[in-house]
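Run log // design_07
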């Protein structure tokens, strides 16, 4: 019996190693499942909640209007049916009260938006574009692919085999520390840009919202303020990126006109004023 179990285990490991070597070629994640993403994301979210120095989260109590506004954007994107892991991932949104021009999303769909970004943008469409882009990183499981590169096959194997019960917590802690500066490949950035357009195509928001955000960044000059540097270091902006997003919008023939300013029952300016 013991021999059989060992054989099964050895076979399982061999299969996993094969799965990993093939995933390097086709960029598939047959080893780390979507359920693993969800579990990892929940741990990262817990770590972030436990680290108010680095992540001063705005409490939901007392900030209901702000949270409802952001959740409405998430709900609008969910309603399109374009999000692949709609039910598997959490898709919860959190506000970080810091003058940082950034947003990010953990594996498993925990979305974080900095007040600095909210204040910087001009309209809800741009914000929806950025949020769609970040959500796409989670939905396309880019962070898991990054983890695979960062931690290597051995660590992920021992994680899945349960050899080190603390491993998941350690990885979650590492990810919580570095997630706001996690850098994706150009390819993943392009994929997320395109998905953002697909998400927004089925909503009232201008489907190229992400493009107008990058345009604004380009107009303001790259790295001219400290706030811009944070976002641009993780999201290299370029004319070609704006063009690609607009081309995707043309391909889909989706609506690029700005939505009604009261899409979520509040003007964007009123929403921004909540953080003054
Ligand atoms: Zn990105």
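design_07 sequence
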């Amino acid at each position: 019996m013991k021999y059989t179990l060992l054989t099964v285990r050895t076979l399982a490991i061999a299969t996993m190693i094969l799965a990993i070597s093939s995933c390097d070629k086709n960029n598939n994640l047959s080893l780390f499942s979507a359920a693993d993403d969800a579990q990892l994301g929940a741990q990262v979210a817990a770590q972030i909640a436990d680290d108010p120095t680095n992540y001063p989260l705005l409490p939901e109590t007392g900030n209901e209007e702000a949270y409802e506004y952001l959740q409405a954007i998430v709900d609008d994107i969910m309603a399109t049916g374009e999000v692949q892991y709609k039910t598997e991932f959490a898709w919860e949104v959190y506000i970080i009260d810091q003058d940082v021009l950034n947003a990010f999303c953990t594996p498993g769909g925990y979305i974080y938006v900095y007040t600095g970004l909210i204040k910087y943008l001009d309209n809800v469409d741009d914000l929806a574009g950025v949020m769609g882009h970040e959500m796409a990183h989670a939905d396309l499981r880019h962070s898991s692919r990054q983890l695979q590169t960062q931690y290597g096959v051995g660590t992920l194997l021992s994680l899945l085999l349960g050899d080190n019960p603390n491993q998941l917590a350690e990885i979650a802690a590492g990810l919580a520390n570095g997630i706001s500066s996690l850098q994706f490949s150009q390819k993943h950035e392009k994929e997320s840009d395109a998905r953002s357009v697909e998400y927004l195509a089925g909503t009232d928001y201008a489907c190229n919202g992400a493009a107008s955000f990058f345009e604004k960044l380009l107009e303001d000059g790259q790295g001219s303020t400290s706030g811009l540097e944070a976002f641009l270091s993780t999201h290299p902006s370029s004319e070609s990126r704006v063009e690609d997003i607009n081309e995707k919008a043309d391909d889909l023939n989706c609506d690029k006109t700005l939505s009604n300013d009261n899409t979520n029952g509040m003007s964007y300016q009123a929403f921004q004023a909540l953080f003054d």
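Residues 133, 137, 184, 189, 192, 235 surround zinc ion (CB under 6 Å).
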